[in-house]
Amino acid sequence: MPTPQERPAAISAKQFHDAVGYDDWRVIGSSAMTVYRTTSFSQAVGFAVLIADAAAPLDHHPDLDIRPTSVTVKLTTHSERSLTENDVTLAHAITEAAKFLEIPADPSLAQSMMIAVDVVDPDAVMPFWQAVLGYTDRGGGVFVDPRRRLPLIWFDHVDQHRPPRNRFHLDIQVPPDVAEARVAAALEAGGRMLGDKYAPAWWSLIDAEGNVADIATWEGRDQWDEDAEEQDSADEDPAVS
Fold it and tell me: What is the reported pLDDT for 60?
């Protein structure tokens, strides 16, 4: 573990999976997640105790959601807002604890969601939502639940609302191996493809009344970041085409 003066180095989704594998875990956004299927609430609590015992010497703690038939585990290094080697170490320990109790993992069930609100005037809207939700302003237009229980809310600054004006926009982050099936199901259920230019980073889907859902994964993010940087340069310098 790093000394208090050191900060753990961020690692990419690929680096995490290269170290941990794909059997039990999936990277979703800036976290690694999985769902363990339990047979009772007692077993779920007992498993949580083993996870706590594994995390204590590392001084690195996961977010747990404990239900009678499942334990959802979310790993991230909050100081870095990303995965680090600390998460790799803890993931290995949790996997071993699950094997000891013979509790199977089903990472295809893991997902997270962010609510994206398209706003023309963020300064007029954001203080209201921070007040009613009791959220913390993380910067960059992002509000977070201080207890990390409820979805992030991102206020996306747009020049004008999309016609017909959408009421909400959800960003749903899923494992890469289930994303295309989720997109296909949404289309079969009456949705339309708004855009897949950046797939597999995300697919944008729209419902019959103009509300938007992005199905997102960690894959393809590097290319999207490069495209965004090129676009930023073009916006700043009219000579760049």
Answer: 94
Taken in order 233, 162, 179, 196, is the CA torsion positive or negative?
negative
From CA 3, how far away is CA 235, in angstroms rounded? Answer: 42
Nearest-angstrom CA–CA distance, 194 and 197: 10
CB count within 10 Å of CB 175 equals: 22
What's the pLDDT score for residue 125? 86
Structure tokens at 40: 């009772």
Segment 79-126, tens digit of pLDDT: 898 999 999 999 999 999 999 999 999 999 999 999 998 888 888 889
Do strands 112-119 and 152-157 pair parallel, antiparallel, or not at all (unpaired)? Answer: parallel
Beta strands in 17-167 (DSSP E): 26-28, 31-37, 63-67, 70-75, 83-84, 112-119, 136-139, 142-144, 152-157
- Enumerate the H helices of 36-190 as residue ranges: 41-55, 85-101, 122-133, 176-188
The answer to whether residues 64 and 72 touch, using CB atoms and an 8 Å cutoff, is yes
First to last CA, the chain: 47
Minimal CA–CA distance to 53: which of 93, 3, 84? 93
